[in-house]
From TrEMBL:
This protein's encoding gene: npdG
InterPro entries: NAD(P)-bd_dom_sf, NpdG, P5C_Rdtase_cat_N, STEAP_metalloreductase
Record keyword Oxidoreductase present: yes
Keyword terms of this UniProt record: Oxidoreductase
The name this protein goes by in its record: NADPH-dependent F420 reductase
Domain Pyrroline-5-carboxylate reductase catalytic N-terminal: 27-118
Entry-linked NCBIfam families: npdG
PANTHER family recorded: DUDULIN-RELATED (PTHR14239), F420-DEPENDENT NADP REDUCTASE (PTHR14239:SF0)
Keyword Transport: no
Native organism: Streptomyces pyxinae
């Protein structure tokens, strides 16, 4: 005789919004002197996170950190990677591979969050590029076999991130990765920024379309003179 499995003996599913406390993590931002990196560093520092911004030049990083103020330090990329618990990759696409190859040792054992969008531009506007590995995040995972790679923070306006008059950034952050523990950490970090919410969006094999969507947002922004973001509907927190 076959009996139905009851709720009492089924494994309990974790609440998707039961996220860890990440307030004590040190967040490193590679490419922290660029617009996107500076914006993320500013928002995390404003939320009370300890932030280290990295650059090829320690002097440039220190100068940018001084401009951003309390809670932000500057260092060269290697020192930033060594001293951070979570490292966000916000470098230009054309420097993505070389930067990560040079930091393989420093990033070993770290949670690395890739937010790079491989894009090309021509007279018709922005268009998506597809790396041989499938996406920037998958390239990062291939280059950093001893790191834990996630993908997030692709669709954020650098202008809004750096606008000190804005208390909140009204957007969701699509988070991708292979480990639920890691994506939970990234979702929790996104939620530290007022107005943001991190939403799990699949494994790294799905990162290409998330990165590519930025080309569409650039077209939206140009047509409507906006700084558009994304909201995922019917997902209740």
């Amino acid at each position: 005789m076959t009996t139905a499995t009851t709720a009492s003996n089924s494994p309990a599913r974790k609440d998707p919004w039961d996220l860890p406390d990440v307030s004590d993590l040190v967040v490193g931002v590679l490419g922290g002197t660029g617009d996107q990196g500076r914006g993320l560093a500013y928002r995390f520092a404003r939320a009370g996170q300890k932030v280290i911004i990295g650059s090829r030049s320690a002097e440039r990083a220190e100068a940018a950190a001084a401009e951003l103020g309390r809670g932000v330090e500057g260092a060269d990329n290697a020192e930033c990677a060594r001293r951070s618990d979570v490292v966000i990759v916000a470098v230009p696409w054309d420097g993505h591979r070389a930067t990560l190859e040079s930091l393989r040792e420093e990033l070993a054992g770290k949670l690395v969050v890739d937010c790079v969008n491989p894009l090309g531009f021509d007279k018709k506007g922005a268009y998506a590029l597809k790396p041989e590995e499938g996406s920037a995040a998958e390239q990062a995972a291939a280059l950093l076999p001893e790191s834990r790679v996630a993908a997030a923070f692709h669709h954020l306006s650098a202008v809004l991130l750096q606008d000190e008059t804005l208390e909140a950034i009204d957007t969701d952050v699509m988070v991708l990765g292979e480990s639920r523990a890691d994506t939970d950490v990234v979702q929790a970090l996104a939620g530290r920024i007022t107005g943001m919410r991190g939403v799990y969006a699949g494994r790294l094999r799905n990162a290409h379309q998330v990165e590519s969507l930025v080309a569409n947002l650039i077209s939206v922004n140009r047509r409507y003179q906006a700084h558009a973001g994304l909201r995922v509907t019917d997902v209740q927190k």
